[in-house]
Amino acid sequence: MMEAGILMMLMMLGSGLVAIACFVAWIWALVDILKNDFDGPNKLVWLLLVIFLPLIGSICYYFIGTKQKLPPATTH
Predict the structure, then answer these.
(1) Using CA atoms, how far apart are residues 52 and 1, in angstroms rounded to an integer?
(2) Which of 5, 14, 43, 65 satisfies CB 3.0 to 4.6 Å to 61 for a cystine?
(3) pLDDT tens column, 55-65
(4) CB–CB of 23/51 below 8 Å?
(5) In this structure, are residues 25 and 53 in contact, taking their beta carbons and an 8 Å threshold?
């Protein structure tokens, strides 16, 4: 009986940690998109993808979108 309670508590803790990690990844993707420049309409496309499909959009942005960022402009 006691083992079931401990197991349930660990499952809830693990689920909470996964949810927090997903939320942090989503916020990171949104901030990174807004901070950087992209070629053409890519910024808007990535922003909409990450907003409307948070988990899938964040994962795709990490693997694909970060390579599409324009290099930072140098000021003299």
Answers:
(1) 42
(2) 65
(3) 999 999 999 99
(4) no
(5) no
